[in-house]
Amino acid sequence: MGVQDSAAAEVDGLNGLDELDRGVVHALQIHPRAPWKLVGEVLGVNPVTAARRWHRLTEAGLAWVTAYPRLSNSRIVVTAVVEVDTEPGTAQDVARALAADPAVTNIKLTAGGRDLVASVVTRSLDELAHLTTLLFQRTPGVRATRTHVSTGLPTEGSRWRLRSLDAVQSARIEAALPAPCRPALADEAGWDALDAHLLELLSTDGRLSLRDLSAATDASLTTVRRRLQSLLTSRLSLRCDLARPLSGWPLSAVYFASVPGQFVAETSRALCGVREVRSCAITAGPHNLVIDVWLRDLHDVHDFEAHLSRQLPRLTIDDRSVVLRTVKHMGRLLDRDGRCVGVVPLRHPQG
Questions:
Q1: Could you give the 3-state DSSP secondary structure of residue 287?
Q2: pLDDT by residue (tens digit) across 252-307?
Q3: Contact 31, 23 (CB under 8 A)
């Protein structure tokens, strides 16, 4: 039994986490770089115990913290959803080939009107055109692609919470978050080699200590602290993810929906408040909303659609696909159980 398999067995495989594990994950979903002293105090355990629980989860590939370019900032990135049709029997091979590219952040094998749904991050529309031409259309097994450029991202996966902590505990973790401040113009002027290296390191492990980051980048502790604060203010986001089967929401689906243009903002805000909605992208194309959801059961695929129709009568679900397997999630390569088994470090958008 390998290290990862042994660690997974310690947390009862994919059958569930205990309350302390769930509390640690929820705390890091709120504040991904929260000090272990704070996490321990909130959960009523020794900080060493909290850190040990997290280490066990990460070693098993069951939870992780990732840094990534701030997707909502269109001055930094251009994002898109790409539907991929493949030749019969080639979908998994195509997914593995696409997963090797850092610009392809997410890949799902799906059933329905497309074989794969991928998310891509580029620095410009021109680069997006180049990517879809070279990467997708020249990958063996790809028959056709359809690209939906995102013009807004009202909500994305980093905002999803496990809901293990109570309101008082959550408030204590939130109070420790760095105070937001207005970024300096220089913060958005461009990325240098240190920025790129920090993103690469933090996309692999978003909780790397300042000391480890300093050693890896050969930059002083003061420089790394200042630069990291600057990046997290304006250009990078952090998120804590959990292997989906452990979340209590083992099924995933993608809905392609439309709403009259004057109601897009209102509808997308309403979708942000729906617990099943993992992310929502406003897109330019035949569908102006692409909605990723987590569900409990296959029956919920249509039940959820009916619920949306009742709550949002102006919304029309044009198509939907059940996710058979997530191959890559924010740079993380996942196995069939949703465990992280590798990382393709994210590149900075100007790289």
A1: coil
A2: 999 999 999 999 999 999 999 898 999 999 999 889 999 999 999 999 999 999 99
A3: no
